[in-house]
Write the structure tokens for this entry.
Amino acid sequence: MKTIEHKIKNQKIIFDYRKFLFWEKESALILSDVHVGKITHFIKNGIPLPENSSFSNLKLFKSIISEYQPQKVFFLGDLFHSNYNSEWDEWLSFFKNTNIKFTLIKGNHDQLNHRIEQLNIYKEFFLPPFHFSHFPEFIDGKFNIHGHIHPAYKLTGKGKQVLKLPCFHICKNSLTLPSFGAFTGNHFVRLENTNDQIFILSKKQIFKINS
Amino acid sequence: MSDFESWVTNWMNKKNWKPQKFQSDTWKAVLSGYSGLVNAPTGSGKTLSLLPPILWPNKDCSLKTNVFCIWITPLRSLSQQIRISMEEFIDDNNLNLTVGIRNGDTPQKIRNLQRKKLPHILITTPESLQLLISSKDWVKKFSFLQAVVVDEWHELIGSKRGVQTELCIAALQNLTSKISIWGISATIGNLKEAMSVLLGDFNKNEKRVLIKSNFKKKITVHSIAPKEIKQMPWRGHLGTNLIRYLTPVINKSQSTLIFTNTRSQCELWYQKILAEIPELAGNMAMHHGSISKEIRIWVEDSLRNNQLKVVVCTSSLDLGVDFHPVESIIQIGGPKGVARFIQRAGRSGHQPNKESKIYFLPTHAIELIECSALNKAVQQEYVEQRTPYILCFDVLIQFLISLAVSEGFYPNNVLNYIKKTHAFSLITLQEWEWVLKNITIGSNSLKAYNEYKKVDILESGLFKVNSRLIAMRHRLQIGTIVSDEQLQIKLINGKRIGVIEEWFISKLKKGEVFLFGGQFYKIFQIKNMEVLVKKSKSKKGKVVSWMGGRMSFSSYMSELLRNELYELNNPQSNKDISPLNYLAKIQFQISTIPKENEFLIESFETKEGFHTVFYPFEGRFVHEALSHLIAYRISLLKPVTFSLAYNDYGFELLSDEFLNIENVLDNNLWDESYLFEDLNQSINTSEMARRKFRDIAVISGLIFAGMPNKRKKNKDLQSGSQLLFDVFRDYEPENLLFKQSFSETFEYQLEEERLRKALIRIQKQKLIWKKISKPSPFSFPIITDRLRESLSSEQFDDRISKMLNNYS
């Protein structure tokens, strides 16, 4: 499967294997933890990484935009890795040249010392029935969609097989997004409650884990 | 008798010592300006073979004179002892000379004093020497240098620290040509090579000499094992139920040193011995690399002063320190190599002519075979070779940045002298230019990447680091020993206890209890790379474990072991092997014991899956390579996924479906042609090179481990080596550091030559395939190993779907 359709709070949400959500009613593409500028930040600090590795994120993002044609895009934090560097420019000029409304929730990595007119920046925001934030936040009665964790799941099988895969993690009142950025780490999550759901992602597909 | 000789001999006479031939030979060689290698064991007076002739021309030197001798030791714990014996000589002869130590344990106050002036004799480690080279005015500081001594060179030569030492010595040689270089080494199989690696290509006029002491030590090996095999565990490496067999040895000895193979084993045995012999409380201590330096130094001093009855330790106490009082040595579990075993044995009966006694306690049944093999090796006085590393670009990059941080360097000058080292004698111009490009303009940038900041090229052509931040970060990074992410363990009042690896602590929750340094601690808080703990009265808790440092049998040890094993076919009354007869009986009942011309493969099913276990008896490293090779070759025949495990005896392929050996065997499974190609493919599909890359990334500065106590500030620059590995694989596979992870896997991990020989041997053997209903005694230690790798030829998404079916 390339996508899974799943209803949360009566809203139809599309989960895509490329690590983002599409909320149909709002025509909103939702993604988190892109970490734009991370490669360049390393290079700037004397760590010689191949520069061309920084282009893949934007290329993928552009192809997703043209496929889904959203009216809005929500970044749930850590869109940028650190301070401004040249890697940001191509993203910013892309933001500028579309009619899409871009919203960023400021994450712990976003050092926004650079003026960014193309983005609406919030600490968190409510768009019923959801509460969007970077860090997981638990407010009674609100369903929280957030990033920050970079969740991944350890899939085990017969013959001591183990595969580690990024995932979406849905609990009773929250949904954690995987990190969109190609150059980011992971944090392992487990199925803790019987109602929890985990969708794991390979390079080609999305899979549902039966709990 | 010359003035010099009467000077030293007089002093020795007062101590009731007589100069030995290797000592007076070395004196002469040093005084005539030779460089060389002294082959002498611990406790033979090796320091005195080199110290007096180095002091002799300087004995009237003023306090203001700068350092004239650098004495490099591989382990910090050796420095104290060396200093004490040097100062004894200096004081007795009323010399006005200073001896100082510079290593990771040196307090800030003394560092500051040393910044103004170094002592006449500086005892240091390879890492600290490189740090000194990365500090300002090092050229001036070392301009008076006359001699560099590398103690315990055999410990350094087979590691990247050896390469680091070679480079530092080359830089010093380049300062002044008058320096003589001396190494001291215990016996290894390739002493001549060890000397030429150390001396490099510097003194062309062949003023070099290898001096061997004819010092012979009688070593006796006693095995401590239960009479009945039934009391032996079949697997595991703990074997603590055998503790009561230790008690008599401990009780009858004035002092005992107990060697364990891992830090967690050390922790566990300490605890169990204390429980078994409670009156040892206060007279027993523990020593391993993760314990804080205060405690380590205290243990070393107490050992020296005869204040401890028992010390449980790891290889951290392996080397030379002369602890005269130690009476008995106990080795717990297989020591994996003959040289190591002999060295450990040498820790007792230090006085010349005194016999060294070592007790061997096997921790599981099959180690009984090892015990018997070791005994033979000791009698035959065989020792292994240590293979020197070459072309370590990670170490070279680190070294070049050190030079650039301090006074800067001119590439041609440096290339000139590093080509004289053994490690880089074969560096090509392209490689050298790549390295220079890597530190100045960055990676494979098509355009000049103006944001990259590391080494600047000044107008004069000098390569120099101008950024203070880069310089500071580099100094914190120096060192080639890599371990997992370390966290400080501290009591709530701030007292440091030691370090622990992050992966272990991540398995514990707040409030849980763990055992460290012989004490139980409860986790209070984990914050900013620190674990705050409280002492706990609990008598139970998790034993801290560490990942690194699994050792492998040497090829000689493997051969001895195979021979012992074949002998199991004809039971006899050899003292070590008799408890084994019971084990042999069960192995025969369930499966079989191979004869010299036979190769055993066992297949059986458990709830984990289908096990296929192969027994080449070639040592862990060869099995690691063989398991990958065979798994890869089988996976070409059909889509399959294997989980691999290996130890010194054999290896296992675990799969989720039955593997019919008859169907795969006739496909040239053991063919040695295409070995290189197939291994290359299997390494690409496995994790081996990835693991090597971690060290390389840290050493070359790709991964910044962070500054002590300032972790948070640098979070932006942290990344896992796994991610970096992927980035290079996908975007710059020609990167030399990336490629080095593969060449290292081949040359040092897989030992291609040994593997080829093993394959040829196996081809001649008759294969015996046993389909058995339950695990045999031989298979037990292998199939229960938790460290595993995988190799698959199935489609990734197919594997996911298959595994997901288990979940429903």
User: Anything to note?
Assistant: The mean pLDDT of chain A is 90. Chain A touches chain B through 42 residues (CB under 8 Å). The two ends of chain A are 19 Å apart (CA to CA). The helical segments of chain A are 38-44, 56-68, 87-96.
